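Methods — Computational structure assignment.
A single polypeptide chain was analysed. Its primary sequence is given first, followed by the predicted tertiary structure written as structure tokens.
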Amino acid sequence: MNDNREQSEVTPSAPQRRVPWWMALIIILCALPGVSFLFMGNLLTSLDMTVKGLTWFYPLYTIASALLAWQCYGRRTLLCWIILVLLIMSHCCFFYLATSIDPTASYR
């Protein structure tokens, strides 16, 4: 009863959906404002450690959100859009923080 036939493992793989180019463009455009916060000199030189810490942490949050939106698009498209909306709302809040510290400051 020894069967010398090779058994190949057949594992059904889930169809891999690529992120369309227009969605990749939307994700990149949503992430660009958050990455630019590192170049805001007045926020980085602030004496408030909370503001300085948020300025360094925010680009990491932006990149993580963009990567999560990228991963979620094919399987959970609604979650991808929710992540992008939250990212845009956080940009608005961070811009408000940046302008409320010193409204006359010039940001590079």
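Note: The helical segments are 21-35, 41-44, 49-72, 77-101.
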